[in-house]
Amino acid sequence: MAPSTTFSTRHRITVCTSCKHKGSHCRPGYELIDKLRRAIAEADDAVPEDFEISGVACMAGCDRPCTVAYHGTRKATYLFGDIDPATDIADLVAFARQYAYLQDGWCSSVDRPGKLRRSTLARVPAAMMVIEESEAQVS
């Protein structure tokens, strides 16, 4: 039995909802989720509809609030910090557009839009080895 080479790519943007700015009670994650959902919806066909945007209690980026992660099926995952809902929505939408069309999710910092060039906390490679080993065991 040959492994399937067709799969549905799913994309997700996860926003930390517990991040707060130092010396403040402000938690910008909820505002960021609302603004990002609206901006992606307004982008129409420029950003694929399969982007899911959700919040999570903590992504351990507390020193660089607010943190945002981009995930995709069989793609590298990105974690960005120091994201501001008042100024960074356009860069986040531009990266969603770019990330959706990157086959493996991999891009260099100079290719990322605006502030995301310098606010990357991590890029985690896709778990292709695990997938390939599982598929090899089936055949």
Automatic annotation (TrEMBL):
It comes from the Bacteria. Pfam families: DUF1636 (PF07845). This is Putative metal-binding protein. It comes from Sagittula marina.
